[in-house]
Design a protein that fits this description.
alpha+beta; 2 domains; about 350 residues
Length: about 350
């Protein structure tokens, strides 16, 4: 039996036990068509059909199970459930959550079970209708940053239970660097600290912190549904915007980054200044993830263990991060260049 088939059997059997243990009055539960649907950095994700009997009638639901790795798994799960609940209350488009469990006995990890959105991703529209798709994407992004953020800071089960100021955010980044012995990234922290006094405070907002077109699904009617909220927190909205702009710069190109930024500014009706600072903070966060994966293991960063292989397969994006850092701040991390060189050399030797 292959590793993936063994894992599928474990999940399928665990789901049946979970549904039998719940007080849902479900009978004859079956798990059909269980398949991995994405290879993400932070979670394991499978789609399935749940078939069951209710009042002598056979029914079915198309669902997704989202499982969380690492020591921080329970906190991420409870935070994401809290975020989904409050987003729904403000009518922001997210999937319906049906079940959650922090008990690892079922599938080996804490998990959420939510609706399976069947219409593909917003990214699939980019090639055929670029301008309209970017417009929709940015309207969803601006709408998110316009929500009432106060309900999102009351989660007593999460470490993210308060609004994060610019200085608090820098403290979080510094703690991450120090706790994981990432001394090679200290020059970026020093640069951010030196630039801090030039940065004007802006308004707080709920940030997604991984907002991109693959995290926006389309339902059967073509309506957008935003997924993947484990990193969400309240902070200066530019931290969230900076993360997305950085992703588009390093995975695509500067033109894509600028098109997105221009559209966002057009919708909010004003120029947004000092984004270099927030994009450098995003680069620091991403580089810290990468170094933690290769220095220890992915689960220490709350990431899936397969992330190391995913990084190796898209190593050019790591090089682009270092290049973009140099463009914005004048800094270049030589240890990152060495890591890239070693990965490429090992790949050639194989």
């Amino acid at each position: 039996m292959t590793k993936i088939n063994a894992r599928k059997n474990e999940i399928s059997n665990g789901l049946i036990r979970f549904f039998n243990d719940t007080k849902q009055k479900l009978q004859d539960t079956k798990i059909l068509d269980l398949n991995e649907i994405t290879a993400g950095w932070e979670t394991e994700l499978f789609s399935f059909e749940m078939q069951y009997s209710e009042n002598d009638e056979i029914k079915s639901k198309k669902l997704v199970i989202r499982m969380y790795p690492g020591d921080s798994a329970e906190g991420k799960l409870t935070n994401e459930f809290f975020i989904y609940t409050n987003l729904s209350k403000q009518n922001y488009p997210v999937p319906k959550i049906h079940y959650m469990s922090t008990d690892k006995q079922y599938v080996g990890k804490p998990f959420l079970i939510m609706d399976w959105i069947l219409g593909g991703t917003l990214d699939s529209r980019l090639s055929s209708n670029l301008e309209e798709t970017i417009e929709l994407f940015c309207r969803l992004f601006v709408e998110l940053h316009s929500l009432d953020w106060k309900p999102f800071i009351g989660n007593r089960d999460s470490s993210r239970n308060s609004a994060t100021s610019i200085d608090n955010f820098l403290d979080l980044l510094e703690n991450r660097v120090k706790q994981n012995n990432l001394d090679e990234l200290s020059p970026i922290l020093t640069w951010l600290r030196s630039e801090r006094n030039k940065i004007k405070n802006e308004y707080l907002a709920l940030g997604h912190f991984d907002f991109h077109t693959f995290n926006i699904l389309l339902n059967e009617n073509g309506d957008p549904i935003v997924i993947d909220w484990p990193s969400a927190r309240v902070s200066d909205f530019r931290f969230d915007l900076g993360w997305t702009l950085t992703l588009y710069r390093v995975y695509m190109d500067l033109e894509s980054r600028n098109r997105l930024f221009d559209t966002y500014q057009k919708i909010v009706g004003k120029q947004i200044e000092q984004m270099d600072f927030f994009e450098v903070s995003a680069i620091l966060r991403r580089l810290s993830d990468i170094l933690i994966v290769f220095k220890s293991n992915a689960e220490n960063a709350g990431l899936e263990n397969r992330v190391a292989q995913m990084i190796k397969e898209s190593i050019s994006h790591v090089e682009n991060l270092n290049t973009y850092l140099e463009e914005l701040s004048g800094l270049r991390i030589t240890e990152i260049d060495e890591l890239i060189k070693n990965i490429r050399n090992n790949k050639q030797q194989k």
